C-alpha cells in the first residue's frame, strides 16, 4: 500500500474510533484516542516516520497526504476536548445533584457594612426611638432650598464658589452643601407637627485629613406648638449619650447659624480622656459634633408657617466624623477611597 492509501485508511479508522468515543462520552477516552493516533507510538506518527523510506520523487505527494490527515485528526481532537469538558460537567452533575435549597456554606465571605453606613443605621435607630421619622431630599437642589429659604443672605460666605459646587453653566442649580435643604422641602410639603431626621450626602469644595468633597450629614428638626430650647437640649443630650455612652457629659455653646436663633454648637466629652484633655480632643476635653438652634422666624415665613403659633428646633452634624471618632480613624479620606482591605476591617455588627 502507498503512504497515501495508508493515510486514508488511518483517517477512516479514526472516524470510526471517534464515533466509539462519542458514544462512550467519557472524558479520558479523548486523550487515549489522541495518543493512539498522534502520540509517540501513534498510528499516524509511525506513518510519518515511514516517509523517510519513500523515494525522493514520491515524498512530497506522500508527505502532503499524511499532513492532510494529521491536520484533520488534530482539529477533530481539539473539538473533542471541548466536548470532553461538557461531559466532565454533566458527569459531576449526575454524581452530586445540587440541592439549591441548602443554606450557603459558612465559609463564604459575606463582607461587612461600610463604617459610615453602620453609623447611619445606628443613628437612625436612636432617632426612631425618640419618635423621629426619616425624610429624604434632593442632592441637586436650587439656591432657594439650600440657601435663601434658610435665611442665608446673598453675600454669605457659604455661597462662595470655593465652597459650593454649582452645576455647569448655572448660578441656581448646585450640589447641596448641607442637609438643611430638607427642612425647607419637608416644611413646604407637610403640616406641623413635624419630627424629622434626614440623613444624606452633601458636597463642598474641600479636601484634607478631616474634609472630603463629599460627606454625610444628618439634619434633624421638630416643629410644633410650644417647642422650647429645653426640648432641643434634651434631644441632643439623649442622642449623644446613646451613641457615645451614658457616662459622658454633653454641652451646648452659643454659636451662629443664619437659620436658627438662638444658635449653638454641641459637644460631647472626649471618651478617650474623659474630659482631662488629650491629642484626640486637642486638649480641650470635648469633641465638637454639630450645630443646632431654634428655627428662625424668617425660615418659618419662607415656608408659610405662622411663627406666632409654631416654634421648632433644628440640628445638623456629620455622620463621618462620628464614625471616625467611634472607629478611631486618623484620616477621613480613608472612608471614601474604596480600599477593600481597609473597609473589610469592620465587622458586620461593629459597635464602634
Ligand atoms: N447646616 C449646618 C452645616 O452644615 C449644620 C447645622 C447647624 C444644621 C445648625 C442645623 C442647625 O439644623 O440648626 O454646617
How is the topology of this model organized?
Blueprint: H1 3-24, H2 27-38, H3 43-50, H4 59-95, H5 115-129, E1 133-134, E2 140-142, H6 143-146, E3 173-175, H7 181-189, E4 194-203, E5 214-224, H8 229-244, E6 250-255, E7 260-269, E8 286-295, H9 297-302, E9 311-318, H10 319-326, H11 340-343
Parallel strand pairs: 1-4
Antiparallel strand pairs: 2-3, 4-5, 5-9, 6-7, 7-8, 8-9
Model description:
Helices cover 40% and strands 18% of the residues. With 352 residues, it is an alpha+beta fold. Strand 6 and strand 7 form a beta hairpin. The mean pLDDT is 92. The chain has a seven-stranded mixed β-sheet, with helices on both faces. The protein has a two-stranded antiparallel sheet with strand order 2-3. Helix 1 runs antiparallel to helix 3, helix 2 runs antiparallel to helix 4 and helix 5 crosses helix 10. The chain binds 3,4-dihydroxyphenylalanine (DAH).
Termini, distance in Å?
Answer: 86 Å
Low-confidence stretches: none
Strand content: 15-25%
What sequence of helices (H) and strands (E) makes up the elements? HHHHHEEHEHEEHEEEHEHH
Please name the fourth-level CATH homologous superfamily of the largest domain: Bira Bifunctional Protein, Domain 2
Biggest β-sheet description: 7 strands, mixed
CATH class of the largest domain reads Alpha Beta
Radius of gyration: 38 Å
The CATH topology name of the largest domain reads BirA Bifunctional Protein, domain 2
pLDDT averaged residue by residue: 92
What sort of overall outline do the alpha carbons produce when their principal axes are compared? elongated
Unique ligands: 3,4-dihydroxyphenylalanine
Q: Order of strands across the biggest sheet?
A: 1-4-5-9-8-7-6
Number of strands: 9
Total number of helices: 11
Number of domains: 2
Using the 3D structure, state the CATH architecture of the largest domain.
2-Layer Sandwich
Amino acid at each position: 500500500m502507498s503512504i497515501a492509501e495508508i493515510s486514508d485508511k488511518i483517517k477512516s479508522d479514526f472516524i470510526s474510533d471517534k464515533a466509539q468515543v462519542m458514544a462512550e462520552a467519557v472524558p479520558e477516552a479523548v486523550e487515549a484516542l489522541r495518543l493512539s493516533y498522534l502520540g509517540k507510538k501513534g498510528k499516524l506518527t509511525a506513518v510519518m516516520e515511514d516517509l523517510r523510506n519513500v523515494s525522493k520523487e514520491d515524498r512530497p505527494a506522500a508527505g502532503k497526504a499524511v499532513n492532510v490527515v494529521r491536520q484533520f485528526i488534530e482539529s477533530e481532537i481539539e473539538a473533542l476536548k471541548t466536548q470532553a469538558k461538557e461531559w466532565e460537567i454533566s458527569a459531576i452533575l449526575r454524581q452530586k445533584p445540587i440541592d439549591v435549597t441548602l443554606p450557603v456554606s459558612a465559609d463564604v465571605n459575606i463582607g461587612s457594612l461600610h463604617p459610615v453606613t453602620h453609623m447611619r443605621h445606628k443613628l437612625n435607630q436612636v432617632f426612631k426611638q425618640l419618635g423621629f421619622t426619616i425624610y429624604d431630599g434632593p442632592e441637586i437642589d436650587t439656591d432657594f432650598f439650600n440657601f435663601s429659604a434658610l435665611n442665608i443672605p446673598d453675600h454669605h460666605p457659604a455661597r462662595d464658589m470655593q465652597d459650593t459646587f454649582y452645576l455647569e453653566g448655572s448660578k441656581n442649580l448646585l450640589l447641596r452643601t448641607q442637609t438643611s435643604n430638607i427642612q425647607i422641602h419637608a416644611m413646604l410639603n407637610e403640616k406641623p407637627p413635624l419630627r424629622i431626621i434626614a440623613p444624606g450626602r452633601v458636597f463642598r469644595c474641600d479636601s484634607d485629613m478631616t474634609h472630603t468633597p463629599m460627606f454625610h450629614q444628618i439634619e434633624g428638626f421638630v416643629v410644633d406648638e410650644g417647642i422650647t430650647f429645653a426640648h432641643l437640649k434634651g434631644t441632643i443630650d439623649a442622642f449623644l449619650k446613646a451613641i457615645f455612652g451614658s457616662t459622658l457629659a454633653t454641652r451646648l455653646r452659643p454659636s451662629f447659624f443664619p437659620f436658627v436663633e438662638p444658635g449653638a454648637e454641641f459637644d460631647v466629652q472626649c471618651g478617650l480622656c474623659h474630659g482631662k484633655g488629650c491629642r484626640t480632643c486637642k486638649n480641650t476635653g470635648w469633641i465638637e459634633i454639630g450645630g443646632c438652634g431654634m428655627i428662625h422666624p424668617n425660615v418659618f415665613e419662607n415656608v408659610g408657617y405662622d411663627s406666632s403659633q409654631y416654634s421648632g428646633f433644628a440640628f445638623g452634624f456629620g455622620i463621618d466624623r462620628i464614625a471616625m471618632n467611634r472607629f478611631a480613624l486618623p484620616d477621613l479620606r480613608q472612608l471614601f477611597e474604596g480600599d477593600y482591605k481597609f473597609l473589610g476591617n469592620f465587622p458586620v455588627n461593629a459597635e464602634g
